[in-house]
């Protein structure tokens, strides 16, 4: 259901960005970039326990014109950002959470791959498949 | 040290020649007559031949091993091209024509020459893997500039033509897919005969040679004479699959960049390696070239892999940690990206470590990749870890549990060796019988006990472009059929998760019809609680796509429930729609719900009315609202509508809404039956005045908006459920195209209405969300204060 899915490293550079090939992908890149500020803000705000799944999920970061941005941060400060088209079905919070969970799982799988160096762009076909699955659902 | 780079064609050619010369079948052409004849047929001056034998090291060895033979052949080609004979020229000369041998006793060669020269022009150079370098141990000799030309070439010693031994090749002829095998031009019967065999054997041999080359590459540092001797002496095929690879691991690290030989560790292993590797790769090739199971690991290979595993991890039931595996496979000098992909494929449980089975699979994939075979998108069944191993290894988690685990390419891990053969067999069946694109088909045949896996498998399968069982030969039918599946599969998976699971439970290795039946039975009972047990649903037509099959079944079961003979009902609905429906549908769409229900309802209604009269205006008028989705076989509409429904729906107070409401309250399972019943009831007053439905529709539209949020989730569920079971009236598409088109029109109209509604609902939703966000922001702002 997502229009754009991005994985941002701890140092705030993108490990993986993928958007439904619509008109301007750059717009999504920009959106993701700006959403990082919100993510940082939320991270710093939540000062207490950081291991909670609930707090890994940041929820709706901010809505804009016709899309909404959701954030999720892992314990290693790797951030997932999902941009969802608002004109699309309004995805329930649980659905977004499940999407993030799937992302997190496949991200973990990628990290488990000994041939993948953390910090490298993600080039896993499995990961691509999962992301495509989440994006293709938009139809 | 240079090495010999052979093109695909060359390898095949040389291999075939080698087989031809290998009369004793000892893998070393001990200067028998054939070799001599061959060389003589090359029509080169004898001193050239002598030089060639020197260069290739045969004089040193006393016979022609495979490597020497190949080098000799290449040198012959070089010589025939008029180039100076030099070791360096072996690889530097590109596009070297194949060595030509004069017509004579060696008809085989001639034929092959003709053949391969034909194919040579087609010049298929393998994809990356084959361009590797066989470094026969003999090369070592060449560096030393070999032994003094010991007088008479060993070649000349034996000149007894022997019957071609190709036919007696031990290896079974496998249906090798050889792009190079063009029909020979020569009409000679013997040639043809030989060709048949060579078609099988030679290719394998050729490829074997190539693959042998692959492995010898790892031993670059080969040198010692010991290696050469040892190699040839220990050439028994089964033998050293292990040793061949052993060398790979042992010396590759030190030797990768060093052309110079590393005598010590390399020697023994290298020797064995060449031959063994040839044999092993031959095995691999043989297996790989099999249509039915290209990825099967032979026992020799497996044994070799196990030995390799032991070198890293003595405990066979233990794991190889990722780092160790990384080092090990990095030695294969494959690109990291490919190794990463191989890892993804082979690490089933995603634990960052390799069990024995995983390791074997990974190794096998590496070998295949080195030989030029593309990596599959998904792990082939034959490489999946056996259930036995899975059972033994406690940590192998059933990826079943986690739906999000779709990362594992092997959802069928739970499948076990016993089921594997059937899987393999069932696989082609499934593909061929897939025309129906009923979602259940692939799942059923997969026989995956895990529902989740089946679902994921379906999704993955539909999304994957490769057929795992035949990575080399993508079967178009499978692909096309699989391509047909995606939309329906996703839709069904999304909407009928429960159904899918329940139906998948009952899956066996039955054929498609049965599986379809099961799935349908899974859904139909739920749908038709009120109605009598439906007869086996008719098989959906191939023209039907996707979820329409389920819908059709449901439709018919509903129809049958209402008392119509199921097969006959099919005839009715198609006949009915055309005239009245278009008029009726125009006004439609109060709601998705209406339509959703309309589908089952319309069918039921139709069936009820059909006996009376087929096209009865009032009947149609009555359920015009229902027929909105009648015959909505377009799955695309369904997901759209589904989305619309999810956007937030309203309970209708109208009659049309009534059933929906009841449906909603009952929940998904009950929706369909109640819907059907209600709609049936609604249709029971078949002659209800047409305006009523229209009014209802309008009303429900109005009602929809205000009641958005309240019934959002319910409605979505309802809609989803109902949509999932959209009956498509024109079951017999072949018979009633008009009906289909009419239904398509109706659906389109419905879609537009729904889209409108949806946008309105979205707008409301947006407003609410904005409010919510503002509230959240305020909350966030207030939060810091709470901490102060």
TrEMBL record, chain A:
InterPro entries: Longin-like_dom_sf, Sedlin, TRAPPC2L. It is found in: Cytoplasm, Perinuclear region. Keywords: ER-Golgi transport, Transport. GO terms for cellular component: perinuclear region of cytoplasm. The keyword Metal-binding does not apply. Belongs to the TRAPP small subunits family. Sedlin subfamily. PANTHER family: TRAFFICKING PROTEIN PARTICLE COMPLEX SUBUNIT 2 (PTHR12403). This is Trafficking protein particle complex subunit 2-like protein. It comes from Monopterus albus (Swamp eel). The lineage of its organism: Eukaryota, Metazoa, Chordata, Craniata, Vertebrata.
TrEMBL record, chain B:
This is RALBP1 associated Eps domain containing 1. It comes from Monopterus albus. Keywords: Calcium, Coiled coil, Metal-binding, Phosphoprotein, Repeat. One of its GO terms (cellular component) is cytosol. InterPro entries: EF-hand-dom_pair, EF_Hand_1_Ca_BS, EF_hand_dom, EH_dom. Residues 747-778 form a coiled coil. Residues 607-637 have a biased composition (Low complexity). It comes from the Eukaryota. Residues 334-369 form the EF-hand domain. Residues 10-97, 301-385 form the EH domain. GO terms for biological process: endocytosis; endosomal transport. One of its GO terms (molecular function) is calcium ion binding. Residues 116-154, 166-205, 398-421, 500-719 are annotated as: Disordered.
